[in-house]
Amino acid sequence: MIDAMFGTTRGIASARIFPFNFWWPYPNDRAMTPDGSIYFPRRDYRDDFSAPTVSISLRALFLHEATHLYQTYVLGYYLMLSGPFDRNYEYTLVAGKRLEDYGIEQMGQMVQDYYRLIHGVSILGGVYMPDDYRDALPVRTG
């Protein structure tokens, strides 16, 4: 799933996925990727997020979090510092604008929405179609 969205990218394969929250002050009700690993609430954790038994919505959430791996390992973002302050999930697709031209959470939400759309699941607002993402997704490497 990750390779299909982001291409074969350095570092991401070494990332770990944990079935618990990142740090005790944070609630264990949401996934997060603050340090190059993904932390999922126990209820959402799967050993294999690509398994056919995993819902499209949960796969899309996994790819949202994998976007933060892409930001860390490929774009060089340090999310421990920038992540808490860049919380805007809403985005407007602009022709010619690449994925990395958007904000941290906007990128994650775009990947999540795109994955849902290409698998026939609607997104909040319903204003975009898969082809609308052509300038940003999937990420083209090389």
Structure description:
It is a single chain. This protein has 142 residues and is an all-alpha fold. The protein has helices spanning 2-6, 56-73, 79-82, 104-118; strands at 17-18, 38-39. The chain has one domain (2-133). It is built from 4 helices and 2 strands; from the N terminus they run H-E-E-H-H-H. It has a two-stranded parallel ribbon with strand order 1-2. The two termini are 19 Å apart.
Structural class: mainly alpha
What percent of residues are in strands? under 5%
Q: Secondary-structure element order, as H and E?
A: HEEHHH
- Provide the domain count: 1
Outline the biggest β-sheet. 2 strands, parallel
- The percent range for helix content is 25-40%
DSSP summary: helix tally? 4
What are the segments in which pLDDT stays under 50 over at least 5 consecutive residues? none
Q: How does the overall form come out from the CA principal axes? A: globular
Average residue-wise pLDDT: 90
Q: What is the straight-line distance between the termini?
A: 19 Å
The count of β-strands is 2
Report the C-alpha radius of gyration, rounded.
14 Å
| Spatial strand sequence of the major β-sheet | 1-2
Protein name: Vgr related protein
Secondary structure elements and pairings:
Layout: H1 2-6, E1 17-18, E2 38-39, H2 56-73, H3 79-82, H4 104-118
Parallel strand pairs: 1-2
Helix pairs in contact: 2-4
Short description, anyone?
The protein is mostly helical and 142 residues long. It has one domain (2-133).
